[in-house]
Amino acid sequence: MRLSKRLLMNVSLVPEGARVADIGCDHGYASIWLASEGNAEKVIAMDVNKGPIERAREHVRQAGLEDFIACRQSDGTGKLVPGEVDTLMIAGMGGLLMIRILEEGRAVLEHVECLVLQPQSDIDAVRRYVLGEGFSLTEEKACVEDGKYYFAMRAERCPADRQTTWEEEWQYRYGTYLVQKKDSVLLQYLNKERKKYEEILRKFDSGQEENERRRGLLHKINEIDKCLAQMMSGPDCQ
Q1: Second label for 105, Cα 20 to 30 Å away, from 29, 75, 232, 233?
Q2: Prediction pTM value
Q3: Rounded CA gap, 89 and 67, in Å?
Q4: Which segments in the chain show pLDDT lower than 70?
């Protein structure tokens, strides 16, 4: 099965041999890939809507993977038994919704060792949440598909003395893994965002409200510059 670049990025972060719950599975393509490629020991494909989960169930049947993938209509982790899986994969939704799913499924989360997350927004809030829940970010990936930038992370539970602690806002906004790797996709994204904010700034006139917005834009540019400075230090970017 051929996956989109975004889905392939997400499944590549799942640990080999994991017992995975694919939350918001849509048509089940990522779940099928995990089972058919032998990466996962078992997969539970879950979606809140009846239509997608019925299509996922049919796709699983067509792939002959009914013994490896269970399909459940579920709001978040509601139909999961604590300890049933060790990995949650949640992708393609807003970051705040993702946090709500994790928070409401705390009984399940307490038994999970790995999170694979690909927020569509508020990625800084997601990073803050998982770091605050006893996880450490062990890998991140980025890709561009149809002109859109996507970022995914793997977070693994770790002892308190090994938990990640950050002080800078840009670290939560952009992470540090891709910065250290001098990732070319992240570099393109940062330069594009910086240019966008600069173009908005040039359109401003004087005025109290606009001055406040202008300070906000300047702050965002400053955070990007801090991140770029880290990326540009050391060996040349790849």
Answers
A1: 29
A2: 0.93
A3: 20
A4: 205-210, 234-238
